[in-house]
Amino acid sequence: MKSRIYNRTGLAVVAAKAAYHWRRTLGHAAWAPVSVFDDIRKTGVQIRFVDLTNVDGLYSSTMPPAILLGAHRPVGRQSFTCAHEFAHHLFEHGVRFDKFESCEPATSKLDPDEFVADMFAACLLMPKAAVCRGFRMRGWNPSGPSPTEVYHVSHWLGVSYDALVCQLRLTLNLISVRDYKALSRVTPAEIKLHLSGTKCPGEVLSVDENWVDRPIDCQVNDYIIIPRHLLIDVSRVAEVVARDGFFHCKVIKPGLGRVFSQDNSWGAFIRVSRRGYLGLSEFRHMEEAEDE
Fold first, then answer.
1. Which DSSP state fits 83?
2. Which of 93, 78, 76 is nearest to 18 (CA)?
3. Spatial distance between the Cα atoms of 222 and 128, rounded to a whole number of angstroms
4. Considering the domain 194-283, what is its CATH architecture?
């Protein structure tokens, strides 16, 4: 699909339509989050995490086509980069090397192909219906969220805090300029310290029955906070401390776990990968062999 319209409005429409088409093709409703690495792999595009230093990702139109992602980037950034590179594949842009300087989707991009790729990624990962659902099913207002609320919803969507803040204002126009500036002044490190009570090298994920439609993907050294009325099966991947009505789970090694309700009416798998994992995306959650 070659993009041949070079005005921003036209390009944004092309990108949005393509994103919604691929959401439907991959079996996702407009209000559901996507597991971008799993979904893109289903299309025949290989995804590999590699030791890139100067770029976030690249797309190669080899056989099979491949997306290479910087292994040491934050997972939310990896997700956006992966969707961005997938757009280069769909629109037949050829080989691309991408380094993202800003979370703002394409607002300063002069290259129309890069503009399309950014807008496609934003619409694939953060469509309005999914963003609004993420806040409202938790009892929060998407037009006036707190920094902590944005942080929680960004994890459910699989994107970074900064990317969701930008999407709320610059694409969806759900928040005011004043709220956008206020949210942008808060750093994820401040939010993580508030939630966990300690400096955390990874992410701090808050999980309850509102985490639906996708697995809980995390990395070693992340923390998962789970209400104590839920049941957990994480002994193979995490150390657990019960405190203040919550399970505080420190993720310590790759593998699989599960959290579920006592009546089994709700549940979600926890999938842990190594931090800085190198290799094909489909093997990132494999447990490490025990030393003999």
1. H
2. 93
3. 28
4. Sandwich (2.60)
- What CATH class has 8-128? mainly alpha
**What ranges do the domains of the chain cover?**
8-128, 130-192, 194-283
Axis-axis angle for helices 128-136, 147-157 (nearest 10): 120
What is the value of pTM for the model shown? 0.92
The HSE-up count of residue 102 (CA atoms within 13 Å, CB side) is 12
CB 148 within 8 A of CB 114: no
Contacts of 112 (CB under 8 A, 6+ apart): 3, 6, 11
Amino acid at site 47? I
For residue 152, which of 166, 140, 170, 167 has the smallest C-alpha distance?
140
Q: List pLDDT tens digits, range 108-157.
A: 456 889 999 999 999 999 999 999 999 999 999 999 999 999 999 999 99
Query: How far is Cα 21 from Cα 19, in angstroms, rounded to an integer?
Result: 5
